Amino acid sequence: DQQVKQNSPSLSVQEGRISILNCDYTNSMFDYFLWYKKYPAEGPTFLISISSIKDKNEDGRFTVFLNKSAKHLSLHIVPSQPGDSAVYFCAYISFSIQGAQKLVFGQGTRLTINP
Amino acid sequence: NAGVMQNPRHLVRRRGQEARLRCSPVKGHSHVYWYRQLPEEGLKFMVYLQKENIIDESGMPKERFSAEFPKEGPSILRIQQVVRGDSAAYFCASSLTGIGEKLFFGSGTQLSVL
């Protein structure tokens, strides 16, 4: 039961153009989403987040959009650079009955930026 | 990857052996999480520990897997009697506050079971 879905396993974009990575979720109660970036042989690193009280959050070249009615979020990278080539995971914060906060990840999208 | 150290980076075990994965969190962090990534999948939560306490082990298989975070020393994820299906990348993350956003991940241990 995949509660966070990234339906595109891979994406290829020309350097300088916009990269758009998509993520769908199932539960309208989710209220905090994050994007992580992962290079091969490294752990994920936090990129950007958004709260459900917002529909957009921007940090430099990275913008995350949240469409609550469609249960959809997207990450835009403009302009795309070769160093952006990585696997991108969307995630939400889940709360357990023990009070623990933990991340639930999507399957990831491998982004390749072509020179 | 701000200072979470995992070792070994690669671990090869034969079926039935034990695997021990170590994680030293960022200095001063007392919250440790273990995640597992199977090939072509996202990271799946396994267990959340604070010093000397297991807070949430809901993602960990009931048998053969155990985790600890002692008062002194690294956190250990232990897998007994490994099987081929345990082959995966195991990531440790640490946090200062226990808030999900502020997780710092290590580079992972790639476990291969022959």
Overview of this protein structure:
The complex is a heterodimer of chains A (115) and B (114). Chain A has no helices and eleven strands. Chain A is mainly β. In chain A, strands 2, 4, 5, 9, 10 and 11 form a six-stranded mixed beta sheet that branches. In chain A, strands 1-3-8-7-6 form a five-stranded antiparallel beta sheet, with no helix packed on it. In chain A, a hairpin with a 2-residue loop joins strand 6 (56-59) and strand 7. The radius of gyration of chain A is 14 Å and the shape is globular. The model of chain A has no long low-confidence stretch (mean pLDDT 92). Chain B is an all-beta fold and 114 residues long. In chain B, the strands form two sheets. In chain B, strands 2, 4, 5, 6, 9, 10 and 11 form a seven-stranded mixed beta sheet that branches. In chain B, strands 1-3-8-7 form a four-stranded antiparallel beta sheet, with no helix packed on it. The interface between A and B is medium-sized, with 27 and 28 residues.
Overall mean pLDDT of chain B: 92
Instruction: State the end-to-end CA separation of chain B.
Output: 29 Å
Look at the structure and give the mean pLDDT of chain A: 92
Please tell me what the overall shape of chain A is. globular
Kindly report the greatest chain-chain contact and the residue count on each side: A-B, 27 and 28 residues
Fraction of residues of chain B in helices?
under 10%
Derived structural class of chain B: mainly beta
In a nutshell, what does this entry contain?
The complex is a heterodimer of chains A (115) and B (114). Chain A has 115 residues and is mainly beta. Chain A is built from no helices and 11 strands.
Topology of this protein?
The complex is a heterodimer of chains A (115) and B (114).
Chain A: E1 4-5, E2 10-14, E3 19-25, E4 32-38, E5 45-51, E6 56-59, E7 62-67, E8 72-77, E9 86-95, E10 101-105, E11 109-114
Parallel strand pairs in A: 2-11
Antiparallel strand pairs in A: 1-3, 3-8, 4-5, 4-9, 6-7, 7-8, 9-10, 9-11
Chain B: E1 5-7, E2 10-13, E3 19-24, E4 31-37, E5 43-50, E6 53-56, E7 65-68, E8 75-79, E9 88-95, E10 104-105, E11 109-113
Parallel strand pairs in B: 2-11
Antiparallel strand pairs in B: 1-3, 3-8, 4-5, 4-9, 5-6, 7-8, 9-10, 9-11
